[in-house]
Specification:
The protein is built from eight helices and five strands, in the order βαβααβααβααβα. By secondary structure, it is of the alpha/beta class. α2 packs antiparallel against α3. The structure holds thymidine-5'-phosphate (TMP).
Length: about 200
């Protein structure tokens, strides 16, 4: 693949969407050919799957939840990410396969080896070149969420702690790819840290 693939990861309320959006605009200003996506989402069918996954009214088993995230990912990879990387574009994506490892693997107890296997199938082997993991204590993050929590946000603090610990484990295991950025009070300071990492990359 000619293009570079940058993903953002983090637990609830870490400011991931704000920070990834800021980085996208920074890269655009540098005249790079960049596209910006979020997961689950990015294409029509994946946005529909997102609605199903996040609707608190839906009862979804851990297995079905994992498969739905993978199905959404398979669509966006085939339609957007793969062609963009082939054309040499930079892809900035808010969440990717690491989210499934953290939320469904570490969080729900789905076998991580199996997630990686399914992930390889869904992504056609496409993996991020650089991942920014925005780290924030769980309670602080959940405070940023409004009262109408979605199906995943509604889960217990204990669940979200497992997700955060899972992310940290992943980051420590793959320090070349996954960079931990501590979330600061000032969003511009957090962004400065991210830009330093991306510029060096
Ligand atoms: P967002 O709130 O960051 O847009 O992500 C949507 C929610 O979906 C968030 O609670 C994290 C969750 N999620 C998973 O549980 N597994 C996944 O594979 C992905 C991509 C997201």
């Amino acid at each position: 693949m000619k293009g570079k693939f940058i993903t953002f990861e983090g637990s609830e309320g870490c400011g991931k969407s704000t920070q990834s959006g800021m980085l996208f605009r920074y890269l655009l200003a540098k005249k790079l050919k960049v596209i910006y996506l979020r997961e689950p989402g990015g294409v029509k069918i994946s946005e529909k799957i997102r609605q199903l996954l996040l609707d608190p009214k839906n009862k979804i088993s851990p297995q079905a939840e994992t498969l739905l995230y993978m199905a959404s990912r398979a669509c966006v990879v085939e339609e957007i990410i793969k062609p963009a990387l082939r054309q040499g574009k930079t892809v900035v994506c808010d969440r990717f396969l690491d989210s499934t490892i953290a939320y469904q693997g570490f969080g729900l107890g789905i076998d991580i080896k199996l997630i990686k296997l399914m992930g390889n199938f869904a992504t056609q082997g496409i993996s991020p070149d650089l991942t920014i993991f925005l780290d924030l204590p769980v309670k602080k993050g959940l405070k940023h969420r409004d009262k109408c929590k979605d199906r995943i946000e509604q889960r217990s603090i204990k669940y979200h702690e497992k997700v955060r610990k899972g992310y940290l484990k992943l980051a420590y295991a793959l320090p070349e790819r996954i960079k931990i950025v501590r979330v600061r009070e000032d969003k511009f300071k957090t962004q400065d840290n991210i830009r330093e990492i991306v510029d060096a990359f």
